[in-house]
Write a structure and sequence with these properties.
Chain lengths: 441, 457
């Protein structure tokens, strides 16, 4: 089911917490009795187990006329499976305080499961049922569709959504990456239970399945649990290939008219692939420009010095077949042009001169030191282990990471800054910014 | 755009979580919190967790938006922003730079009742961040050069959180109508026309009135022993002089509510109408024994998740809503609120939805809750506390928010026991006593379709 963040803005909850010494963490590579591979981190001090997993093939597998199928499926998987209907399934989860999530991104279908140790067998069994025998009962399906459509209607006047959707569809026209994973008001009504069954059948398989388990469990038990949930899946998936693509329409600006007091700006260009040798340099340079913390150049110039916005940042986003650098801000309509000018000039300055040696040193220190803090709970560690696996970084990545960061020289940083920020920007603005209109630079 | 230094709306959620999930159902694991008071009045709570060599260090000031002078709404939150602008000893940006260099993270947030700042750092750096925090407790220096751009920042924050967000606008109007006398009726971020006039002197004046060791609670969770943390606190915070002029927080109290209130907010951007009703109910601090816990269980049974009464009745069975739920905020110094909300399906009016919600509430009042519902809700609430123990910063937040609103360490420690003790009769009684429409404001959010709407917004 979907839960709307209505009046109480629950969605905003900012998790900033933290435990777990990343580099001291021991990752075991285990194989289940039926031959499924997984990574395990044992942590016995709290009586819970966190599972995180990913199948290849997210919304890229959607038929364009039925965009949103993967996402819709994700929202239907806890709505009943096997001989358990939706109400009973939800009741069973809550009776044992089992937390189960499903989520379709562009490239992957990901899920998580968290339970108290004593409820592990029931939890993995319920997941296994959801993955292999989802019911897609018409009643539940129409209820969830109604929720999806309500959310999509709401988004039609939400400047954040309008700006973001416009950016992606313009950067990747006609490509699966240009489509929003959540589908549209046109496509969602078309999706049927058979579409979802077909999606499940093609995507949920033991091939290219990534599993991470963290918590109060040993290797042997973990293996048995994995088989309870995943042992019944077919061996092979059946995925549509996704062509590689670079973002297009760089140099364009698009203004979407919506009557809001504050305009929402999205800007971005071509990024760096995760397996590119320049990735770490790009990651560091981006951190210096706008990646986070209260000391990035964009934060200082846009927020601290000029008070133009509450937030401004940018980040690297990488897919299997494309990579972008993308950022955003929100600023009052009469000063949007000023904010954009500052952002563009900072990006240009970074492209031309790169960071200073002092900025590079500080960014390296932060990125190394803060890694442990970002792995602040068993669930987050499990999610990170899945990310490391799907990015194919190796089981020793956590240990190697600091050396990879240290290896980035100031020359690397300057060269990669030019590569990252010298290629032009696609800018989308939702709102009524004074003096700004759509056009090409 | 995740770079939100302050997350005061999340503070409302922290507030929820304090009630909903503090600490610890598992009796045998982990150290309990230790609690100390320094001679200058500063309280220290230490929650050891040695899984990793990091600590979460938080300082909670017992001052929030509800302590503002009339006409100066938003100053508590504005000051929170300005606390990053430097002291005589450490110029603007130095603290943040040091935190960043040691790989730490920091943030701050404001609610009606408290203002908090925190850092998460390697444990050997605990003294460093305590030093900086102790310094800015009394050493803040502000000039118009930094204050004026920051005022533009909070105005943009208000744009982003409220003006661009119709449901948030509705929430502001409901609060303002619900609280007749309590300062909880004011938005934490402030009313915009007052925010526009806030000055450096307002900020410094507020700072001098409220910031001092005897108005602060330091919470340290992580890889440190209580005695070691105490020693570091004595060496840093212990040197700050007691502030002898901090007045106790005796705020105007609510009169007994007597009128059913309703309001409608029309906004041209509303594509999905919704309704929200808030009842004036006791917080943990103002409740009789067991009352607040009964309200927590009631909120869960009535409206948390897909097994709840509201969801099953309105969304699953009657199909009149796409979503529906309820929510109770127990963590407040004064009287608090219990919130019920719903989004109708297309073709269903808000009046029809409201009638359906009323029927669900009436049924709980008349017939009570089932043993299964009671057990399931308690299991879930208590398990959430175990999950929470997986995260040291969550622990620090719960103790901090509880103590900053007047509860004790023992109150937090024994929360699961009190939830276990809630009976079906208490839940029914809570519904009967508090979910009385005369205690409430019902708000409708609808689309403004008037010709002027396009211009106005």
């Amino acid at each position: 089911m979907i839960r709307f963040a209505t009046s109480i803005a629950l969605a905003l909850l900012a998790l900033w917490a933290g435990v777990s010494n990343a580099s001291a963490m021991t990752i075991e590579q285990i194989v289940s009795p039926s031959g499924i591979h997984a990574w395990l981190v044992r942590e016995h001090s709290v009586p819970l187990i966190a599972l995180n997993y990913a199948f290849h093939g997210g919304s890229t597998q959607d038929d364009p006329l039925r965009a949103g199928t993967a996402h819709f499926t994700a929202d239907m998987l806890d709505e009943g499976a096997g001989d358990i209907d939706s109400k009973t399934y939800h009741a069973k989860l809550e009776e044992r305080a089992i937390e189960m999530t499903f989520n379709a991104s562009r490239d992957y279908f990901r899920g998580s499961l968290r339970m108290l140790t004593e409820n592990r067998d029931e939890a993995f069994d319920l997941l296994g049922l959801a993955l292999t025998k989802p019911r897609f009962d018409v009643d539940a399906l129409e209820r969830v569709r109604g929720q999806e459509l309500a959310e999509l209607r709401r988004e039609t006047t939400n400047p954040n959504e309008l700006s973001s959707r416009s950016w992606w569809s313009t950067a990747f026209p006609g490509h699966p990456y240009g489509r929003d994973s959540n589908g549209t008001l046109e496509t969602m009504p078309r999706i049927t239970a058979d579409d979802m069954r077909s999606y499940v059948h093609r995507v949920f398989a033991r091939k290219e399945l990534t599993i991470s388990i963290v918590g109060d469990v040993d290797a042997e038990t973990a293996g048995k649990l994995i088989d309870r949930a995943f042992g019944g899946l077919p061996a092979d998936n059946d995925l549509k290939p996704v062509p590689s693509i670079k973002p297009s329409n760089l140099g364009r600006r698009i203004v979407i008219d919506v009557n809001v007091p504050q305009a929402v700006v999205t800007f971005g260009g071509e990024g760096v692939a995760r397996n590119d040798p320049d990735f770490m340099a790009a990651y560091i340079v981006n951190h210096i420009l706008g990646g986070g913390g209260f000391s990035s150049r964009l934060y200082r110039e846009v927020r601290e010095k000029r008070g133009l916005a509450y937030g401004v940042s940018d980040q690297l986003v990488w897919f299997r077949r494309a990579a972008v650098v993308i950022g955003g801000t929100a600023t009052r309509a009469d000063r949007t042009a000023d904010a954009l000018k500052v952002i563009e000039s900072e990006i240009k300055r970074m492209a031309e001169s790169g960071p200073t040696p002092a900025e590079l040193d500080e960014a390296k220190a932060f990125i190394k030191g803060s890694y442990a803090l970002s792995l602040d709970s068993s669930s987050k560690i499990a999610a990170q282990l899945t990310q490391i696996q799907i990015d194919d970084l190796g089981v020793d990545y956590v240990q190697r990471r600091s050396a990879l960061i240290d290896a980035v020289s100031i020359e690397d940083a300057k060269r990669v800054a030019k590569r990252l920020y010298g290629g032009g920007l696609l800018v989308t603005v939702a709102g009524r910014p004074a003096g700004l209109s759509s056009g090409t630079e | 755009m995740n770079l939100n230094r302050d997350v005061f709306i999340a503070a409302a959620i922290i507030t929820l979580a304090v009630g909903a999930t503090p600490v610890f159902a598992v009796d045998d694991t982990s150290a309990k919190a230790s609690h100390f008071t320094l001679p200058n009045g500063l309280e220290l709570v230490v929650i050891p967790d040695h899984r990793a060599p990091v600590v979460t260090h938080m300082i909670w000031y017992k001052v929030g938006a509800a302590d503002e002078t009339a006409g100066k709404s938003g100053i508590a939150h504005f000051l929170e922003h300005l606390m990053f602008k430097g002291t005589a000893k450490h110029p603007a940006g130095e603290f943040s730079q040091v935190v960043s260099r040691i790989g730490g993270q920091e943030n701050a947030f404001t609610s009606s009742d408290y203002t908090a700042f925190f850092q998460r750092v390697p444990s050997e750096q605990l003294k460093t961040v305590m030093d900086f925090e102790a310094d800015r407790m009394t050493g803040l220096q502000l000039s118009d050069e930094v204050v004026l751009p920051e005022r533009d920042v909070i105005l943009e924050e208000q744009n982003q959180r409220v003006r661009n967000n119709p449901p948030a606008r509705l929430g502001e109007q409901i609060d303002a109508a619900l609280f007749l006398n309590s300062p909880y009726g004011k938005p934490v971020i402030g009313w915009r026309h007052e925010m526009e006039g806030l000055t450096r002197d307002d900020a410094i004046g507020f700072y001098r009135r409220f910031y001092g060791p005897n108005d602060a609670i330091v919470v340290v969770a992580g890889d440190v022993e209580p005695q070691a943390a105490l020693k570091l606190a004595e060496e840093t915070y212990g040197k700050v002089e007691r502030h002898n002029a901090i007045a106790p927080r005796n705020r105007p109290q609510e009169p007994p509510p007597v009128a059913v209130r309703s309001l409608t907010l029309a906004d041209p951007r509303v594509e999905e109408p919704q309704m929200q009703r808030d009842y004036l109910v006791p917080s943990f601090m103002t409740a009789q024994k067991g009352e607040s816990e009964a309200l927590e269980v009631l909120a869960h049974i009535l409206g948390s998740g897909s097994n709840s009464r509201l969801y099953t009745a309105l969304v699953v069975d009657q199909k009149v809503a796409v979503s529906a739920g309820s929510w109770y905020d127990s963590t407040a110094i004064d009287m608090s609120k219990f919130d019920v909300f719903g989004v109708p399906r297309q073709g269903v009016s808000l009046q029809q939805l409201e009638a359906a919600i009323d029927a669900v509430i009436a049924q709980v009042i008349d017939k009570g809750v089932t043993p299964e519902e009671l057990t399931r809700s308690k299991t879930k609430l208590i398990a959430d506390a175990v999950y929470a123990h997986d995260n040291q910063a969550s622990m620090a937040r719960w103790y901090g928010a509880a103590l900053a609103t007047g509860a004790t360490v023992s109150d937090v420690d024994h929360w699961p026991d009190r939830i276990r003790a809630v009976t079906a009769e208490q839940v029914q009684q809570a519904a009967r006593q508090w979910l009385d429409k005369r205690r409430s404001v019902t708000g409708y959010l609808i689309k403004d379709t008037s010709p002027q709407a396009e211009k106005r917004s």
